[in-house]
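README: folding subset

This subset contains proteins for which both the sequence and a predicted structure token string are available. Records are stored as plain text. Below is the entry for Peptidase E (144 residues), shown exactly as it appears on disk.
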Amino acid sequence: MYCYSKYDAQGYIDNFYGAFNTEHPSHITIRNFESPNIQEIINALDILYVGGGNTHYMLKIWQKTGFDNVVRNAYQNGVILAGISAGAMCWFETCYREKNEEEYEEFRGLGMLKGSLCPHYNDIERRIAFDNWAITQKNSTLYI
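--- output ---
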């Protein structure tokens, strides 16, 4: 199943189905998060794959709707959690994002994995900012 953080962008959904059409994929949107049987739906998955977008916004929505707890429960029941960009970063204790063109800031992730992940580490400005921030941290850090 594909869950995404890019404001329910149809292009992301189309790409997901194109890439995984032989695996019987499905997806959910923000509108599904408060469904009475959402825990049952998510627990039945093999993999929950979260796409890219705005991690900070996504986590606020998840917390507001209780979907963060749904995901935690699913993980404890053996559902594999995966993702790209924002969808990879959200599982970690600490997230580090571009606040504006000149500043970065840290915020709490779901805390299911120790440390921090930096998607788009190949971007030189992001890499320098993240490296400078990572030096000050006591937790482990993973670069991507």
